[in-house]
Amino acid sequence: MDMNISVVLVRTKYPENIGSVARACLNMGVSDIILVDPQNFDQDKAAPLATVHAKHILQSATIVPNLDTALADFQSTYGTTARMGGWRKGVLTPDKAALEMAEKLASGERIALVFGPEDKGLTNEETTTCGRLINIPTSQEGTSLNLSQAVLILLYEAFRAFHGHHQQPGNSTSSRQATHQEQETLFSAIQDALLAIDFLKSDNPDYWMLPVRRFFQRFSLKRHEYNLLMGICRQVKWMAGKRDK
After folding, report:
1. Confidence (pTM)
2. Backbone phi, then psi, for 34, in 5-degree steps?
3. Given Cys at both, which of 38, 112, 118, 181 links 72, Cβ 3.0 to 4.6 Å?
4. 113 and 234 co-located in one domain
């Protein structure tokens, strides 16, 4: 059984790495790769690393111009980061992320695993866009992982957790999960509402919104909950407008 996980590669520099990622996806039952603004992508260079067995995954890869477009239809998004500390709170290890993903997959969510370019990784803005962050612990003597190695590690952990997860009866719900695009719309509405009541500092609201974003991204937001929160935000802004008048 294939996992409903898509591997999202952002500004990948070397087509050979994309080919190796396709091979890793085949090994772990994942068939969807999304390439965000790939650099120097060449099917002929990538194909030998994918091998004939994963050639179909490579050929069906989707190319999009930016990360927001890539993530728009996903309910859960996990970004990878080598940098720790600062505002990056609650960063998951691969095994803990896999257990979380297994439950989401069992409930029908679509999941995106996001990997940055080989030399610099995801930018701060891109990691903020991702709902959750994963860090792969390594020895201090060698902290850099090849892109396909990182993909294989995370997909392996997800594969183990997914196939070991026993779905309990009675967990279905009539309300679907909010998509990534809907979550971003909600975060924008929350930020506007909190600015309207002077809860956020206006000098750098995106930064002060980070704890709020991380709080909501800890759980799966349902569509009816999204509608409720959007209504609250509209009411808060309306009340703030009356106060100002």
Report:
1. 0.72
2. -115, 125
3. 181
4. no
